[in-house]
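Quick board copy: two proteins, each given as sequence then tokens.
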Amino acid sequence: MAETEFTATGVRIGRWLRSLTRAGQVRISDGRLMLLTSYGSEIDSAPVHSVRAGRPWFATGDRAAAVVNGTRYHLTLSERDPAPGEAGPPAVRSLLDAIRTAGGHTA
């Protein structure tokens, strides 16, 4: 199995006004972007080259939007500031860079 190119845990994943999970995962591996629940069940996945992602103009810096298989998902990569000495979750910029590097479309 190939090395995982990007993983973010503790991600709030929502669709419209509905929260699908508050502690999910976003993973890019083997050329696919996967949205997973906290239990590891797949919410949605698609080849990275068909995914569009970006930052909504109205959202704070820790939020992103991704269109996977025609469905728009709202991703919040952090809900709190990390404690001193604790590593925080990956930034939205890291996610967008990983999608761009893997061949996806970013705004």
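And the next:
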Amino acid sequence: MRSLPLSLALTARLSPVAVLAVAGWALSSGPLATAPAAGQSSQEATTPQSQPGSAPSADPESTTYSASPAPCSAIAAKTVKSLVPGAKVGGKEIKSTDAELRRTCSWNALKGYDYRWLDVSFEVTSSEEKAKSGYDEHTSEKSGGGKVPGLGDEAYSVVNLVTEDGQQTREGTVVARASNALVVVTYNGSDFESKKAPGTDEINKGAIKAAKDAVAALKG
């Protein structure tokens, strides 16, 4: 989160301050002080009264989340085992420039000829508005996907097929927003024997399953 520095320089001369201090004494305690009304104590007379209907204004930068959860423990062990057979459940956290706000964990393994890769990223922004902007930016780059109901405040899923040197790889991406935080899950797979990729449904459901774990971890 970024905050703009606010600097305030105040200069004052001693003489005017002294004059103001004397004037303040004259108005509050001296002969110019206002006498309290009948039935009103002197304390009540000098205590500022709040205006009817006034209320503290809401903080436009209020946030739900202040830090990213530990990403490698955000995905349940059973989810990791089912999506990435043979991978270490603990995963590997990717180094971040700001680990408090942005954290990513990755799992990958080759079992037989089947390869799977899963990663989950968390980004906590300074406001819900910024998270919405980030969500729109992520999803505007995608095409052919659709919304995922019941996942965070809003979520989007897309699956793409890539073929390189005759080898297919199918990759699913889920972007979810929960208040001022973003969760991005990437899940892909390949079969190095058949050179085919896993089905769209398998990859899409796997990515959504991991995203649900991640959003639940965000909420604690």
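Board note added afterward: Residues 1-60 have pLDDT under 50 and may be disordered.
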